[in-house]
Specification:
heterodimer; A: alpha+beta; Barwin-like endoglucanases; six-stranded mixed sheet; five-stranded antiparallel sheet; 14 helices; 54% helix; B: mainly alpha
Chain lengths: 375, 101
């Protein structure tokens, strides 16, 4: 039994090698389609998992003030009203904003940390800023203030490169410097950050805040977490375009196969049947042919995708991901891969091809060998 | 030894499967090695009260999608279209659409 299978495989592979050019092209395209799909699946899943892990300690709730549908500075007087809501443990004004650096055309996120605030006149910068502006510790950096004057800040620390996925564009400064720099009055903050005792009360507290302060909008930690699920879900933006192009590629494969075998292949089947091969043997041969092509392409595509995403930092995706961003974090994702991802990929790539191969083979295998050879 | 095509084919598939196993082991090791780095990022997020990953720095609603306002794509005017490339990668956030406050 095993020997019979091996003989059929030997014959199948010889047959494939006879059409070396066509089949090699098929394997290369198939491998690239699998690699593209697998790269998207690996990249988005790893990013979603990392986001959910690192953002689990994000603020429980942020309260923003809206004016005419846009953010506005929030009066610190709101703190007291929110603090009176049962369940709120603490409220604090958060100071942060954006600074456009015309020198390199990049946007920085300027933050005033609550703990370990830099001394007045000094700043801490993210790895992306340091890399792009070639900054070292101790350098003096001129930044253009809100009133048009130039402030000089001394860099005292550079945030670690390993945290660049969350800190690449950060610029930390003291509260006094921030207020002077952006001309923000002491009575206002960018938004309010809340500490809530019982996480199950967050929804109720958010509703109470909107009722008490109708010009505010609370953003909860759960919403922050859902954001990245939504950004990198399979339905989002370019991902659906990539999935669509992969589906179209498989439709072309399937069309090529389903539109029938070539005259040469039909002739081969006719000869085999005339020599005494059963229909089941021909089907078995086609099954091994489909499996040889799809399994080797699937495994090669999987390995290529792993190398691309987790070793070479998704370098093919970077031009798309960077967009107009000047500061793009230099990061390599943690390989959060699991069996279900690989099973999904297998189902979407190997199964359609195998099905598309078997049906026309069955149609050719049941026809009369005499008719095939005379045609 | 490997005169038959089938032997060579099985060896090739076995080699690919072995590489996939090495890939799985590599992934497990990388995950273990990355744990302190993930904790470092977590600590930074907690200390600085950050809300977003630093992925797209080109516009404020792509840098901080979780904090985006309800009219993010129309920030330059009520009739302006989304024009940043990242906008094609990320749809509007769940809390900015629908009837949520």
């Amino acid at each position: 039994m095993i020997e019979k299978q091996r003989n059929i495989i030997d014959f199948t592979l010889s047959s494939l090698l006879r059409r070396k050019g066509k089949n090699s092209a098929l394997v290369i395209v198939y491998t690239l389609v699998v690699a593209l799909l697998a790269s998207v699946i690996f990249f988005t899943h790893a990013l979603r998992t990392e986001a959910s892990l690192v953002l689990q300690d994000a603020p429980a709730m942020i309260v923003q003030k809206l004016v005419a549908g846009r953010f506005d500075l929030i009066p610190l007087a709101y703190e007291e009203k929110i603090n009176n809501i049962r369940g709120v443990n603490a409220v604090r004004g958060r100071l942060w904003g954006y600074y456009f650096d015309p020198g390199i055309g990049a946007n920085y996120t300027v933050i005033v940390p609550e703990a370990e605030q830099p001394a007045d006149g000094t700043i801490v910068v993210g790895e992306g800023i340091a890399r792009n502006r070639k900054i070292s510790i101790g350098d003096l950096i001129p930044l253009r203030e809100q009133n048009g004057e130039t402030g000089i800040f001394k860099v005292t620390r550079i945030l670690s490169a390993s945290s660049s996925l969350v800190s690449s564009d950060l610029l930390l400064m003291s509260e006094r410097d921030f207020r002077l720099f952006f001309n923000i009055p002491r009575t206002h903050a960018t938004d309010l950050v809340l500490a809530v005792g019982n996480p199950r009360e967050i929804g109720t507290i958010a509703q109470k805040i909107v009722t008490a302060l109708p010009d505010t909008r609370p953003v909860t930690r759960e919403e922050i977490g859902r954001t990245y699920d939504s950004v990198f879900s399979w339905r989002s933006g370019i991902l659906i375009v990539i999935l669509f192009s992969a589906v179209v590629s498989f439709l072309i494969f399937a069309w090529d196969k389903a539109s029938g075998l070539s005259a040469e292949e039909k002739n081969e089947i006719g000869i085999l049947k005339a020599l005494g091969w059963e229909t089941s043997d021909v089907l078995l041969m086609k099954f091994w042919e489909g499996l040889a092509i799809s399994l080797s392409s699937f495994l090669a595509g999987l390995l290529l995708a792993y190398l691309h995403v987790f070793v070479f930092s998704s370098s093919f995706f970077q031009p798309v991901l960077k967009g107009w961003s000047v500061l793009y974090p230099d990061f390599t994702l943690v390989p959060f891969i699991n069996a279900s991802q690989i099973a999904t990929l297998f189902f979407f790539t190997v199964v359609p091809y195998t099905v598309a191969t078997i049906i026309p083979a069955w149609r050719a295998a049941i026809i009369d060998p005499d008719a095939v050879m005379r045609a | 030894m490997l005169k038959r095509h089938s032997s060579r084919f099985f060896l090739f598939i076995a080699l690919q499967l072995a590489l996939v196993c090495i890939m799985a082991v590599h992934a497990v090791e990388r995950k273990a090695a990355a744990r302190p780095l993930l904790l470092e990022k977590q600590a930074l997020i907690k200390t600085l009260e950050l809300t977003d990953l630093c992925l797209f720095t080109e516009a404020r609603y792509t840098r901080h999608p979780a904090m985006a306002d309800l009219h993010a794509p129309f920030q330059d005017g009520p009739l302006s279209f989304e024009h940043f490339p990242s906008g094609s990668l990320m749809p509007p956030q769940p809390h900015t659409v629908g009837n949520k406050p």
